[in-house]
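Quick one, probably user error.
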């Protein structure tokens, strides 16, 4: 696995942003899909070692996220959600500066800056001051600084935000081109399913700080899940863990309602057997059918 997280929890004061995230990402471009406030940016910052999780552990390309932050930053390029531009600099100086920050010698950083600026389509504008850049150009320069040190992994946080349809599709094409290269793997956060489908083969759906689904997009889309809503009496945490081990996706609402998305190979009896084994009393039980499209729509909101 290239990225692996176990039981990650993180709160900003009293705001719980990540609530027990388990994640495994192998080869191939991966989308991190979730509505506003789902915890996408927090998750990326934890992967980069900018934030320390309250609980849990993880590895990126074999490096420990808690202890090998410097090695990780050399291997990872990061395009933040917010502006990270420095006014008064032109694109070449800015991009080369980020190259130097990640440990490249000045000359090499300068040479690479020119190359990546041409690659992202800013060749002509590379000596212009950054404050004169349009929104689309700003996204491209943010992409250039993330690429300058030739990372193995590229984390893009909402790379299409603030763009008009034309700018959006240009940036998506560029990302697709980057992710088609064998030597770099892309992780893209977005709240738009179609952006992720266009650029990625895999997806992790995050909702309210928890993983709602993860895997290959095509495979996930073919599965018809049965959705059961239930209330239980007993040790919810062990029950939820047992359900997840059997391939279910489980969400717990604030009102204590469990939503269990069950794959077709596990039958309803299976669910009751797990409940009996874990000493769980099922008090309220309602079934409905749902597809992954519905799951996407429900978790992410329709775009
Ligand atoms: N610096 C902070 N201080 C307090 N709460 C924060 C801070 N940053 C994020 N949060 C809260 O943590 C939760 C997760 O936020 P996060 O920014 O990770 O979500 P996101 O999925 O990136 O959302 P968006 O799509 O809006 O960028 C939200 O409830 C948010 O309000
Ligand atoms: Mg965010």
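Nope, works fine. Designed sequence:
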């Amino acid at each position: 696995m290239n990225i692996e997280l176990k039981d990650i929890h993180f709160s900003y004061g009293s705001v719980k942003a990540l609530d027990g995230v388990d994640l495994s990402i192998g080869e191939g471009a991966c989308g991190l899909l979730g509505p506003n406030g789902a915890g996408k940016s927090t998750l990326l910052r934890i992967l980069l070692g900018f934030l320390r999780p309250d609980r849990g552990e993880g590895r990126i390309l074999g490096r420990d996220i808690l202890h090998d932050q410097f090695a990780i930053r050399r291997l990872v390029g990061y395009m933040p959600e917010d502006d990270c531009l420095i006014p008064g600099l032109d694109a070449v100086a800015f991009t080369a500066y980020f190259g130097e920050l990640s440990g490249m010698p000045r000359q090499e950083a300068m040479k690479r800056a020119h190359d990546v600026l041409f690659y992202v389509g800013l060749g002509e504008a590379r000596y212009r001051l950054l404050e004169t850049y349009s929104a689309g150009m700003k996204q491209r320069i943010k992409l250039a600084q993330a690429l300058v040190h030739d990372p193995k992994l590229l984390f893009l946080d909402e790379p299409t935000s603030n763009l008009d349809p034309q700018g959006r599709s240009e940036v998506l094409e560029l990302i697709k081109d980057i992710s088609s290269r064998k030597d770099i793997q892309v992780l893209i956060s977005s709240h738009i399913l179609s952006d992720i489908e266009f650029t990625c083969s895999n997806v992790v759906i995050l909702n309210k700080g928890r993983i709602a689904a993860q895997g290959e997009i095509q495979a996930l889309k073919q599965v018809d899940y049965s959705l059961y809503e239930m209330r239980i009496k007993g040790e919810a945490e062990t029950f939820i863990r047992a359900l997840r081990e059997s391939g279910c996706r489980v969400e717990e609402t604030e009102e204590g309602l469990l939503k269990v998305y069950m794959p077709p190979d596990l039958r309803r009896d299976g669910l009751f057997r797990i409940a009996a084994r874990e000493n769980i009393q099922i008090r309220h039980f309602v079934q409905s059918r749902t597809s992954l499209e519905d799951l996407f729509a429900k978790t992410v909101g329709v775009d």
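Residues 233 and 281 are 5 Å apart (CA to CA).
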